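Residues determine shape. Take a concrete instance:
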Amino acid sequence: MSLKNILSDKKSELLASWFDRILDTYPAETAKFLRNQKDRFANPVGQTIREGIEDIFRELLQDGDIEKVSCYLDNVIRVRAVQEFTASQAVAFVFFLKSVIRDGIKDIPLTDELFHELMTLEAQIDSLALIAFDIFMQCREKLYDIKANEMKNMTYRLLQRANMITEIRDEEKDNNLIAIQKKEVKT
C-alpha cells in the first residue's frame, strides 16, 4: 500500500490533528472558540483555516498543482498575516503537517518504499513552507503600504484643516512641472 493511500484512509484523523496543532498557536480562549464554533459566519477564521488545510492536504495527496496549493496557502496565510504572528509563527503550521503525518503512520511498518515516499512528501511540505513565507511577506508588505498611505492621507487632512496647505490650481501645477522638466534638461 502506498503512503498516499494510507494518508487518504487516515485523512479525517490527520486533518483533525493538524487543525488542533494550528489552534494551539492561538491563546486558549481564541482556540476554544475557533475549535467549537462551527458556523462559518460566526467563525470565518476557523472556517478559512479548516477549509484551507483540507484543500492543501488533498492537493498534496494528488501531487497537486502548485498554483492551486499556493491559492489555498494564500487563504490561510492572509488570516495569519493580519494577526499578531511573526513570520515564523505564521508559516509554522505548514511544518506541523510533517509531525502530524509521522504520528499518524507510526504504527505502520516503514518499508524502504514508504520511507522514500515520506521523504518526497516532506520535501514537498518544505517547499510549501517557502511559498507560505513568500505569501506572508507579500501580505505584510501590503498591510504596511495601506498603513503608510492611511497615515499620509490623515496627515494631509490634518494639515488641510489647519489651513497649512494651499491648493495649487491645475494650470500652476502644469507650469511648475514644465519648469522642473526644463531645469532637468539643462543639467
User: Anything to note?
Assistant: The mean pLDDT is 88. The chain has two domains: 3-147, 153-186. Residues 153-186 form one domain.
